[in-house]
User: What shape does this take?
Amino acid sequence: MTRPALGLALVLALSPASLHAQLGEVHVGLLASYGTAGSYQAGGGLLAGVSAGRLVYLGVRWVYFAGDTEQRSDPQGQYDVTTRAQIFAADLGLQYPTGPVEIVAGVTIGATRYGQETDPLGSGGTAASTSGVATELLVAPNLSVQIRALGLLVIPEVMYPLSGAPDLRWPADRKGAVFALRLVVPFEVQRVRW
Assistant: This one.
């Protein structure tokens, strides 16, 4: 294949689909999520957003993560420490239509609220059960693919939350990728004509 033919094939493969009018849509949906860090683990949540011209996405999300329980110790005894996280955030993304799917690269900005419960193990512990909360700024670059199926959007997503270290009794495991699968009902609000 010659260079001009390769260049033309690359331009055609990467150019947005131009056969259909772009839609303005409202998105409402649910998401299931799994984070690799101990503070996240399995989770679920709600989301809503607007896809303006199917070129820009603006939305909000709330996600509750079940977290993880670890055994920790100090001079007073041993403890079961459970750390959980909740995300309250806004999403901003650029959509790139590539035919039957749309790729969205963006950022999630908001807050992560960490909750930590400490329970003494056995009768040897001298401390009572305690709990604490801490809230940190969240910035999370993300990448998703919107797939249209049966009038719904199925959206696999990966994000990497960057948040500060929460001020809790025990260090919180918070670094690692978060994978999500969003199931969204899109409502067309207008057609954008060029």
The CA atoms of residues 148 and 154 lie 6 Å apart.
